[in-house]
Amino acid sequence: MSLTPPQLGLQLQRLKQEGKPIAVLTAWDVMSAQWAEAAGVDLVLVGDSLAMVSLGHATTLPVTLEAMLHHAAAVEKGLQHTPMVCDLPFLSYQCGPDRAVAAAGRFLKETNCLGVKLEGAEPETLAVVSRLVRSGIPVMGHLGLTPQSVRQLGYRRQATDPVAQERLRQSAHELEQAGCFALVLEHVPHPLAGQLSQELELPVIGIGAGNNCDGQVRVTADLLGLTAAQPPFSSALLPGAELFSEALRGWVASLQPGQ
């Protein structure tokens, strides 16, 4: 990668200050990484959404640290200059700062990853963020709909009442104070996300959080219409699955006698 970990945070901060929208797409292999880089994104995220997109799981919970490292190693082969951040999978950081440092450190040691993303802002998570940052590992936060908490929160919109909104606002500020270089806000009320983008110095990157964030992140397979269940806040840009299936059926049919 052409950037160092500290430079990534500075680059995103500069884009925010200049009012230039930050574009982030997910990738799970060489091909999807090449698509994202060709699109001109500012950052590629190796998201644990690959558990569903690539591995066929119903949620992100089953994907392992080893699987995430495997996919990150593939993604980096498809990137020439775009920086890469990787999700820490479920139970790789919830079991204490020591295990979190060991897990996150592997991404920086074994791949070209410039930082890690984790979900939530509970006291234990804030302690992990602080420890990771002090250990030289850049951290991106993630609030709102946090898929690793699906068993508790489901996939519904978060922070829909004043009390929950104030709690999320406080959590966002705590993540900034803990040293996060950016924050993902997922499926929260648009006015709240816009307010936080103005309040926080760190870049706020939204998904299902309105157009007033400092940037947007999307699961690439969702945008291309390749996922079975389309999120309500991420419309497909084209019917990818239908187009691919039709093309492949046409090829199979062309092999038949007389074609």
Short note summarizing the structure:
The protein has 259 residues and is α/β, with parallel strands linked by helices. 45% of the residues lie in helices and 13% in strands. The protein has helices at residues 5-17, 30-39, 50-53, 65-77, 97-110, 123-134, 150-153, 162-178, 190-199, 220-223, 240-254, and strands spanning 22-26, 43-46, 84-87, 116-117, 139-144, 182-186, 204-207, 215-218.
Order of helices and strands: HEHEHHEHEHEHHEHEEHH
The helix-and-strand class reads: alpha/beta
| Gyration radius over CA | 19 Å
**How many strands, which pairing sense, and closed or not: the largest β-sheet?**
8 strands, parallel, barrel
Report the uncertain regions. Answer: none
Please give the alpha-carbon distance between the first and last residues: 48 Å
Helix percent reads 40-55%
Number of DSSP helices?
A: 11
Widest sheet: strand order? Answer: 1-2-3-4-5-6-7-8
Q: Which whole number gives the mean pLDDT?
A: 95
Estimate what percentage of residues fall within beta strands. Answer: 5-15%
Overall strand count? 8
* Coarse morphology: globular
